[in-house]
TrEMBL record:
Alphabetized UniProt keyword annotations: Dioxygenase, Iron, Metal-binding, Oxidoreductase, Signal
Name of protein: Prolyl 4-hydroxylase alpha subunit domain-containing protein
Biased composition (Low complexity): 186-196
Signal peptide boundaries: 1-21
A GO molecular-function annotation: procollagen-proline 4-dioxygenase activity
Length: 295
């Protein structure tokens, strides 16, 4: 019997050794290519003179999920910043397009994406929003904020389920996303000029939430401030399901990481999301994407 036990020792050592992971079906590591050349037309490259003049702007962060990392941010934009974004976007809005061939060509397809988009100029307030987005991510090396884009959705407008990332080719890609809500037709920033100096509020938004069907449904009813909740969603003892819809609350934002930080370059399936159809009113959102080195 002792002889048999001795014979088992090398077998147990083999199967407990991390080297055996080489023989497993684990995803391969990233084959990292040299960094592509940076394009200032697409990226909001930093200037050392930009951020020192930005006013202090407190906001509150709530952790919604840890894997993937999803943060809900209250008061990410100030009322003045929201008004400014609407003013500079208005003359620039153009129909949104989609791509089906890795970015080679774009086309208008309202069945997938029905909205208007504006790449906003890098004014002083816009640069401060860029700086805030960089700071929240910890000033990560080799990660750059893309040029900011506002999106306007009128009644019927939507964006079908999609990923913000396509591939992690060469170890580079769109590593993170913010969905920031600028206007829902109810606040000061949505007021319209009547020509007589008076302000008239727009129609109150209905619909237009941002849906993540693969994220876990939150357990704590406190989240109902920020997400759509049914009466049965928080029944005691019930197992949590999947799916969450974040309300379009002006000034607030959702931030998420697109890729796993495990060296494989794999994207999170849970970041599959959609801009649900606007039923009434107008929604304006702000996309803040960051491009760079996948960890």
């Amino acid at each position: 019997m002792f002889t048999y036990l001795l014979a088992l020792v090398p077998v147990l050592l083999f199967f407990s050794n991390p080297i055996t992971q080489l023989f497993s079906s684990s995803p391969p590591r990233i084959h990292r290519l040299p960094r592509p050349q940076l394009n200032e037309d697409l990226l909001a490259l930093e200037s050392p003179l930009n951020e020192t003049s930005c006013p202090s702007h407190p906001y509150t962060v709530h952790i919604f999920s840890r894997a993937p990392l999803v943060l809900y941010i209250e008061n990410f934009l100030s009322a003045d910043e929201r008004t400014h974004l609407l003013e500079i976007s208005e003359p620039l809005f153009a129909p949104s397009t989609v791509t089906h061939d890795a970015g080679e060509t774009t086309q208008r397809d309202v069945s997938v994406r029905d909205s208007e988009v504006a790449v906003v100029p890098r004014t002083g307030p816009v640069r401060c929003v860029e700086a805030r987005a960089r700071a929240l991510q910890g000033w990560r090396p080799e990660v750059w904020v893309e040029r900011l884009r506002t999106q306007r959705y009128r009644a019927g407008g939507h964006y079908a389920h999609h990923f913000d990332w396509s591939t992690g080719r060469g170890g580079w890609g769109r590593v993170s996303s913010f969905m920031v809500w600028v206007d829902d037709g109810s606040g000061t920033s949505s007021s319209k000029s009547t020509g007589s100096g008076e302000k008239k509020e727009g129609e109150k938004l209905e619909g237009g939430g941002t849906e993540f069907p693969l994220l876990r449904t939150p357990e704590d009813p406190k989240w109902c401030r920020f997400v759509e909740c049914s009466e049965s969603k928080f029944e005691p003892g019930e197992e949590r399901g999947n799916g969450v819809v974040f309300k379009a609350l002006p000034g607030n934002a959702v931030y998420w990481e697109n890729f796993m930080a495990d060296g494989t370059g794999r994207g999170y399936e849970e970041t599959w999301h959609a801009g649900l159809p606007v039923k009434k009113g107008v929604k304006v959102g702000l996309n803040i994407w960051s491009w760079g080195r996948i960890e």
